[in-house]
Amino acid sequence: MPTTNFRNLLYRAALPLSPSPRGQMSHITHGHPIDIKAFQHILRQHHVLGSSLLLCQGDDFATVHTTIRRPAHSANSDTLFRVASITKMATALVTLKLAEEGAFALDDPIAPLIPDADDEPALRGITIRQLLCHTSGLRDIPAYEQALRNGDTFHTVLRSEGVRVDNNAMSYCNFGFGLLGCLMESITGQSLETVFQQKLFQPLGMEATLDASTLEESRIIPIARVLPYRQGQDITITSLGRRSIAQPDPARHFGHTAGAMYTNCASLSNLLLIIANDGVYKDKQYFSPALIRQMKTQHSYTGTAASPDRRYGLGLVILDRPDISPRKLYGHQGFAYGCVDGAFIEEETGRQVIFLNGGCSEAREGRLGLSNKALLQWALQKELPAWK
Length: 388
What we know:
This protein is an alpha+beta fold. It has helices spanning 5-14, 36-45, 87-100, 128-132, 142-150, 154-158, 174-188, 192-201, 265-276, 289-296, 370-383, and strands spanning 25-31, 51-57, 60-68, 81-82, 262-263, 280-281, 284-285, 300-301, 311-312, 317-319, 329-336, 339-346, 352-357, 364-365, 368-369. The chain has 2 domains: 5-85 and 206-233 and 262-386, Beta-lactamase (3-Layer(aba) Sandwich), CATH 3.40.710; 90-201, 3-Layer(aba) Sandwich (Beta-lactamase). It contains 11 helices and 15 strands. The chain has a 7-stranded antiparallel sheet, with helices on both faces. A two-stranded antiparallel ribbon has the order 4-5. A hairpin with a 2-residue loop joins strand 6 and strand 7.
């Protein structure tokens, strides 16, 4: 995927060579009618391979499930999506719940709380809060992916060259979020799936799981890179996802809490609501307001004129983009295997834009996916204001 401005320009120039949904889309819609032609234009522009969209404004909503014929990507109200790094919002909430229950404090060092890690130099001085806001100094290196493939422990990664640099500037790190999963299993003695179900998914009425091995594969939309597109290599469940996590294994379960959640738009809407409402869901206080406010506070930032959107709370992207909205947006993106997912809620108004897909253009503006930017601008500036 593009990682530099130059590569991004090359990617966008080559995008017309990738599969396009033009002329082969069908939609299942519910709720408030939307400008479907404007929405289809965005899908065509970014070569979206099947998707679900949810727009919310007050008590009003609209959903659109879009299927394309070639390559076959079918979506309906029963479809589940692997939402990639949107998982980090859920992981942060579960971490905050455990902190609220007294299992640890956010500024506790993590090393004493996970198996046999006290003597790991790479973890020295790293706190739970730093993992949540990507300021630990840890880096995603090839040894991280290799350890996941091999079923190795997190110690293998920590002892690899380059896993940590000697500064605390923001550096987005999936491995760091994975260690939060090790922490959860170590502290509770329960499997990640049990912890997430009990602390988050069930209380919020979410249809969601970290254990893809339990899912009917036919319900999952396949994910494919549109550039380059390789026929027959769509992904529904990764090799890691096929391994059950029904039993705790805190030394090895560092591959799930950064990006392995499967869920749908309606469930993500509930998750966004509890963040926006300072821990309240359906008039019940599930999370400490003080902790949720910490989650929404900017803890790290690496913005430049070319990348003005790199603001981060605790497991939460903060979009402060006047070109999209005069208000802050809270949420997260998810990039993996070709999908470019996004789930955001607007401060004060509570308007929501959630978009999940089976692959589309991965072109970015800074760190913001251009598909997400286009959808947010259309929804917040044109579509939702037109609702009466």
